[in-house]
Design brief:
Helix content is 60%, strand content 4%. It is mainly alpha-helical. It has one domain (2-81). The chain has a two-stranded parallel ribbon. The longest helix has 21 residues, at 20-40. It is globular. The N and C termini lie far apart (33 Å). The model has no long low-confidence stretch (mean pLDDT 93).
Length: 90
């Protein structure tokens, strides 16, 4: 499935900051979930909301604060989509 170019750039910027031993599994899991999210929206392209929703649905709680920090550093505006939902970010 195609990606919005800006979203793909942000995603890659974020992925390279994830510790090496988690990088591949994170990339694969988020990519798969983002595609599922886009399909559920009946979209032919993965957009920011799909990636952000994937991260918030699949990241284990011990890595939550790191995910928030990396999303912000990469330029993802997760608050725009109503995240975090009832959880602390720090």
């Amino acid at each position: 499935m195609d990606w919005d170019n800006l979203v793909k750039d942000k995603f890659q910027k974020m992925i390279i900051k994830i510790p090496l031993f988690h990088r591949r599994i994170t990339e694969e899991a988020v990519n798969k979930r983002a595609q599922e999210n886009a399909l559920a929206r009946k979209s032919t392209k993965i957009e920011e909301v799909d990636v952000i929703t994937a991260f918030f649905s699949d990241v284990p709680s011990p890595f939550y604060s790191m995910m928030i920090r990396l999303l912000e550093q990469a330029g993802f505006d997760y608050r725009r989509y109503g995240f975090p939902k009832g959880e602390k970010t720090r």
